[in-house]
Amino acid sequence: MATEDTSDIYAAYGYDPTAISPAVQHIRGVVRTLWQRRWSAFTFLLIVMTIVSVSTFSKDTVYKAATLLRINKDNLKVLSFEEFVSTDESTDELIRTEVEVIRSLGLAEEVAAVLNLSANAEFQNELHPGILGGIIGRIKGADTPDDLDRNDKHLKAAAVARLLEMIHIDSIRGSRLVKLSVYSHSSRLAAEIANTWSEIYIRRGIDSKMQASRRASDMLAKQIDDQETIVEKTEKQLHEYTRMHGIYSYDDMKENINQRISELNTLLTKAKTDRIEKQAALQAMQSDPLGSEVAIKDPVVQKLQEGIARLEGDYSDMLEVFKPQYPECTRLRARIDQIGRTIKKQTRQWLAAAATDCTVAEQRVAAIQAELTKQQEQATRLQDVAVNYNALTRELETTTEHYRALLARRKEALSSMQIKESNVSVVDRARVPGRPHSPRHALNLILALVLGTALACGTCLGLEYLDSSVRTPDDIEIELGETLLGMVPEIEEDDEAGSDSKDLVSHLDGRSTVSEAYRTIRTSLAFSSRHGDMKNIVISSAVPGEGKTITAINIATVLGQVGEKVLLVDADMRRPRLHRSLHLPNNRGLSTYLVGQCELDEIIMATCLPNVDIIVSGPTPPNPSELLESHNMTELLAQCRQRYDRVIIDTPPVMAVTDSRLTAAKADGIIHVIRAGKTEKRCVRLAKKHFDSVGARVIGAVLNDVETESGTYTHYYYYRPYSN
After folding, report:
1. What is d(CA 442, CA 52) in angstroms, rounded to the nearest whole number?
2. For 17, which DSSP code?
3. What is the Rg, in whole angstroms, of the alpha carbon atoms belonging to the chain?
């Protein structure tokens, strides 16, 4: 984890990551990645450009000629029921249909035949050389007429197939325009095929309409003959039916019957009213004959009633004087009775006459009702007859109207055969193109450059994303949470100096960039020491091969160069190396001291490095871990602390064995060596967990074996010109 002195350490490099925004850091990271992998990107781009260039310049030149057609709906309707083709279709459906007609095989065959493409020298270049060579070879080798005919058919079929490949049809969205494009190696041939194709397409459309009109006319003629027979048959049936039922004027008969029924209804109403009146008069006369209207209006009866009244008065006067047997009274009584009988007789005559009138009224009502019923029955019979009559009449009208319509449509069909117009028109004829359509060399190369650059950059960034190794200071500081003590460039081995020149670079070449890098690490350690005593320092790494031994030797060297008394301890007793780098014997050392075979002074040896002593590992023991964990190791470190300003301890990789953790637990701090571009981040995290598990303090990390020429770290080595 980063300590609080991080800013001071980065200040030693002139680098402050907190002063740069994340976006700028990201952009700079992308730029650094692309610059670092620039040769890979350039190689990838070169491959893409080469492939595109070879492909572009190896292609034959292709010319494009286009004819623009306008397709309208066909308004010619020969048949009202559209027996042949339904014209109820949308514009899009019409355009799609016509497009398929344009690219039809039959149209292509006619174009090939009109232009005689199978024998056209320019068109032969359009055919595939292998196919064409085979066809020509077969033609040349043909011995019989059958072979020649068969080969000619194959050649024509190949020409038609190639012709269909050469055309391209585009419908312009939202319009009725169709573009017929022809692609050919010959500019003249492309324009000729496009114009011929459109002309034949238009002519075939006109011929198709004429054929349709001719077929419609022939069919209409047959329908007219059939319909004429039906009309004659219907007229005959209607005539026979009217003659059979006596219907000469159906409307007049119907009107007369309805008028008669109306008159009879009126007479029946009046007769019923008269009958009711006569019956009322008869009933009134029967109840009071002398009070009836007839009696009141009869003067004779009125006089007789007056006479009876006068005689009744005289008779009453006489009875006051005489008895009823008195002759005069008898005469008056007889006279009164006679007049009464006369009145009764007259009354009976009235009643008989009234009864006769009622009977006559009843008979009149019955007669009128019978006549009305007769007329109604006749009207019903007329309606029954009218059903079939109307059916026959309607059938005759329908067949006659259809017959006349067929005559009119046949006349239209005959007229349309004389009109040679098409619903397709040429908006723009194809012209001989002045320049090739493809390949477009400049455009292809520009696109290849753009696409290749994008793919190359994407590939580099993808490789960078997949690369999980530690590469930059940001990886150590931000992602791994460790303090960067310094970065050591890649050390170039000097053949003349020997194989150990890399290990002693700070001693042998003090002005080199590597030496300056280790001095920077020394400065970082000085800043770290301000926050605690940092005498016993363990140098370790996560995995083998990260340069921890070289780092230990050179850190000890630069510390000794500033006057510090340094002890270099080789605690890697499994694979010791310090004694070989410094050309010292290894017959005794740390292992012999830890097992109690010698004293400390006996194993401390001087080196060629100024102010630097060393304790080599000694013979390899069977139990290095137990020795490093022993009290003798603790005692050794305590004594070394008192004698030396710094004790640099080289230990095995932490993930390989437990020796580093055991030693780190007894030391003041650990320097974690990481090899740039090789050590994976997960290994560094796991190593840090191992150190944390024993309570060891990680002072910081050294990014080792940095490729400064890659550009990723160049800005961190601004001092290189001075060091050189």
Report:
1. 11
2. G
3. 67
User: DSSP labels for 238-250?
Assistant: HHHHHHHTT-S-H
Count other C-beta atoms under 10 Å from residue 563's C-beta. Answer: 10
Rounded Cα gap, residues 180 and 185, in angstroms: 17
Distance in angstroms (rounded) separating the CA atoms of residues 628 and 637: 11
Asked if residue 416 lies in contact with residue 87, where contact means CB atoms within 8 angstroms, the answer is no
Distance, CA of 691 to CA of 216 (rounded, Å)? 100
Q: Which two tokens stand for residue 53?
A: 């260039």
Question: Is the pLDDT higher at 408 or at 636?
Answer: 636
Asked if the model's pLDDT at residue 567 lies above 90, the reply is yes
Whether pLDDT at 718 is above 50: no
Output the six-digit token pair for 523. 């400065």
| Residue 619: cis peptide before it, omega within 30 degrees of 0 | no
Length reported for the chain:
724
Strand 669-675 versus strand 536-541 pairing type: parallel
Report the pLDDT averaged over residues 320-324. Answer: 71
Extract long-range pairs of 634-643: CB within 8 Å, 24+ residues apart. 634/666, 636/590, 636/593, 636/594, 636/600, 637/536, 637/666, 637/667, 639/600, 640/536, 640/567, 640/569, 640/600, 641/535, 641/536, 643/565, 643/567
614 phi and psi angles, rounded to 5 deg: -145, 145
DSSP letter for 642, please. H
Q: Look at residue 67 and give its three-state secondary structure.
A: strand
Structure confidence at residue 416 (pLDDT)? 61
Token digits for 14? 């002139």
Q: What tokens were used for 255?
A: 């009107």
* DSSP output for 449-476: HHHHHHHHHHHHHHHHHH--B--SHHII
Spatial distance between the Cα atoms of 212 and 196, rounded to a whole number of angstroms: 24
What is the DSSP annotation of 473-490? HHIIIIIS---EEEEEEP
Q: How confident is the model at residue 614 (pLDDT cuts 50, 70, 90)?
A: very high
Bridge partners (DSSP) of residue 224 are: none
Q: What is the pLDDT of residue 81?
A: 39
Q: What percent of the chain has pLDDT above 90?
A: 3
Report d(CA 153, CA 429) in Å as an integer.
31
The two three-digit tokens of residue 307, written as one number: 């006479």
| Distance in angstroms (rounded) separating the CA atoms of residues 347 and 324 | 29
pLDDT given at position 647: 92
Q: Which two tokens stand for residue 609?
A: 């490095």
Residue 126 has pLDDT above 60, yes or no: yes
Ranges 124-138, 356-370, 375-389, 603-617: which has the least confidence: 124-138
The DSSP secondary-structure symbol of 680 reads B
Helix (H, G, I), strand (E, B) or coil at 352: helix
Higher pLDDT, 136 or 98: 98
Could you tell me whether strands 536-541 and 646-650 are parallel, antiparallel, or unpaired per DSSP bridges? parallel
User: In angstroms, rounded to a whole number, what is the distance separating the alpha carbons of residues 667 and 537?
Assistant: 6
CB 233 within 8 A of CB 203: no
Q: For residue 397, what is the DSSP state?
A: H
Q: Write down the number of H helices and E strands in the chain.
A: 26, 12
Asked if residues 63 and 185 have their Cβ atoms less than 8 Å apart, the reply is yes
Tokens of 186: 């010959």
Whether the Cβ atoms of residue 644 and residue 656 lie closer than 8 Å to each other: no
| pLDDT of amino acid 12 | 47
> Would you say the C-alpha torsion 718, 680, 554, 648 has a positive or negative sign?
positive
694: three-class secondary structure by DSSP: coil
**Tokens coding 230:** 């039906």
Per the rule left: phi > 0, alpha: psi between -120 and 50, beta: everything else, 58 is alpha
Cβ pair 474, 17 in contact under 8 A: yes
Q: Report, as an integer, the average pLDDT of 214-233.
A: 80
CA 415/CA 418 separation, integer angstroms: 5
**Distance between CA 589 and CA 604 in Å, rounded?**
8
Compute the distance between CA of residue 118 and CA of residue 124 in angstroms, rounded to an integer: 7
